Amino acid sequence: MREKTGLILNMQRMSTEDGPGLRTTVFFKGCPLRCRWCHNPESLSYKRELEWFDDRCIGCRTCEKICPVKAIGFENQKLVVDYSLCTRCMKCAESCPANALEAKGVFWEAGGLADELAKDHAYFGEEGGVTLSGGETLAQPDFAVALCEKLHQKGIQVAIDTCGMVDFSILKRVFPYTDIFLYDIKIMDSKLHKKHAGAGNEKILSNLRLLAAMIENSDKNLWIRTPIIPGATDSHENIRQIADFLIAEAGTVLSRWELCAFNNMCESKYKRLGYNWDYAGKEKLTRSHLDELLKAAVKNENLRDRTFITGSAKLEV
């Protein structure tokens, strides 16, 4: 039987931000949501893409000359890719003498990737392991299940970072091989969720209820993560609504709730991919604002010891 194959963006070793302990985080390509603040824009498309580093480009136009379908051109000394023509052969990136073009996305077989990740087993320790992130891990369900099963067989702790916008049957399939679920709850109001994330949240909330019920009768862990985004998720009302929902639907199994501070370090990625970013020029949130949201989150004392701010804040003078 042919191995399950998945499209992987990259791997980040020695990570401390995607679950407990030291971890290797694997970023899957493709996501069903379109969060306006996404700090991994290169992970959104389900297809391979090109990232152009203008500071490396020497202007030789080898990429333009070698493209077999004439999908590459330059406008005002800026590289432009016509993806309606592009076949994703990546000959342009392979031929660039200055490495100014990078192909985003590599195909892996589940067994080969599991073997590669197992090389990091020595530094995981008792708490660490592998986190599958994205994009959306479960948007490539067959590959994700196969990879989780192989990692589980190798005795490696597995965490899955998910936005929850998947069929619950996929969560059920991956459940036996997953130790920790890192589950995003961004906005409680479904209309606002659609405005800011591209889709309503009914399926996300329903899936969390069902997942929490499964976790209650298992040794799995549930972490909730809420990105704190200026003008989108950072209202006291939204945070209180999420807190009430978590207590009602997952209070007995919730291990940790992270309020993840807005990250503005990804603006250059959008430029290199040729995308516009709605949050270009936005500053980080202040520590005082984040602290006020934390107070709103832990108004219910049952969440006090399980809720944390992660990420950096704007320096206040």
Number of strands: 13
CATH superfamily of the largest domain: Aldolase class I
What's the helix-strand series?
A: EEEHEEHEEHHEHEHEHHEHEHHE
Structural class: alpha/beta
* Sheet having the most strands: 9 strands, mixed
The general outline is globular
User: Average pLDDT value?
Assistant: 95
* Major beta sheet, strand line-up: 7-1-2-8-9-10-11-12-13
Q: Would you give the CATH topology of the largest domain? A: TIM Barrel
Compute the gyration radius: what is it?
21 Å
* Domain tally: 2
- Which percent range fits the helix content? 25-40%
Q: Could you list the spans in which at least 5 consecutive residues all have pLDDT below 50?
A: none
CATH architecture of the largest domain: Alpha-Beta Barrel
Number of helices: 11
The top-level CATH class of the largest domain is Alpha Beta
Through-space gap between termini: 62 Å
What does this structure look like?
- The protein has 317 residues and is an alpha/beta fold.
- It folds into 2 domains: 5-45 and 109-310, Aldolase class I (TIM Barrel); 49-104, Alpha-Beta Plaits.
- The chain has helices spanning 62-66, 91-95, 110-118, 121-124, 141-153, 168-174, 190-197, 202-216, 236-250, 267-273, 287-297, and strands at 5-15, 23-28, 49-52, 72-75, 78-81, 101-104, 106-109, 129-133, 158-162, 180-184, 221-228, 254-261, 307-310.
- Strands 7-1-2-8-9-10-11-12-13 form a 9-stranded mixed β-sheet. It has a two-stranded antiparallel sheet with strand order 3-6. The chain has a two-stranded antiparallel sheet with strand order 4-5.
- Strand 9 (158-162), helix 6 and strand 10 (180-184) form a beta-alpha-beta unit.
- The longest helix has 15 residues, at 202-216.
- The radius of gyration is 21 Å and the shape is globular.
- The relative contact order is 0.14.
